[in-house]
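Re: that backbone. Tokens:
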């Protein structure tokens, strides 16, 4: 699967939605995903800024071996608080993968952000490195290299964006309407 590259360095990926043997125009899906991505990215920014029901939580994680465990704990606790316990298992797994990648391949402080608007749970992991993650196929004898594959299979969509401080890698999962308490 190839990534779409946006002018500002944003790359998006979507899991395959077509079953084997289904004939299709290989570019029709790309064009539709491009239109959807532009629309979704704009909606997320607007919704986070204007939605009174939006919920956001951000934490700086320790740059140590305990960061992934801390991120899993924070993710599960916050999703339980927000009434999204049904998303906690998948979110925990994917958060753990992204935080581990940040520790292994990134630099500087790692930041975890969770946000919920309408029907979307968005998770972002930021670090100080500018190198973007690449989906690759791990060999059978490799211990690692499957985190982004899991992300690609389980997330609704995911991507990465370079920032002035490094990069943010994010993913989205289906959520549900959350009302402010």
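Recovered sequence:
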């Amino acid at each position: 699967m190839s990534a779409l590259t946006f002018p500002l360095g944003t790359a998006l990926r979507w899991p395959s939605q077509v079953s084997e043997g289904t004939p299709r125009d290989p570019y029709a899906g790309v064009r539709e995903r491009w239109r959807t991505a532009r629309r979704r990215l704009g909606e997320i920014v607007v919704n986070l800024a204007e939605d009174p029901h939006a919920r956001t939580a951000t934490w700086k994680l320790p740059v140590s071996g305990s960061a992934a465990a801390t991120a899993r704990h924070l993710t599960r606790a916050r999703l339980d608080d927000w009434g999204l316990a049904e998303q906690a298992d998948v979110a925990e797994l994917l958060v753990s993968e992204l935080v581990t990648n940040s520790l292994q391949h990134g630099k500087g402080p790692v930041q975890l952000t969770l946000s919920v608007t309408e029907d979307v749970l968005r998770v972002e992991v930021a670090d100080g490195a500018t190198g973007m993650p690449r989906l690759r196929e791990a060999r059978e004898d490799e211990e690692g290299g499957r985190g982004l594959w899991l992300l690609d299979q389980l997330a609704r969509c995911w991507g990465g964006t370079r920032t002035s401080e490094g990069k943010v890698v994010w993913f989205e999962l289906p959520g549900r309407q959350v009302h402010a308490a």
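The longest strand covers residues 166-174. Residues 68 and 99 are 6 Å apart (CA to CA).
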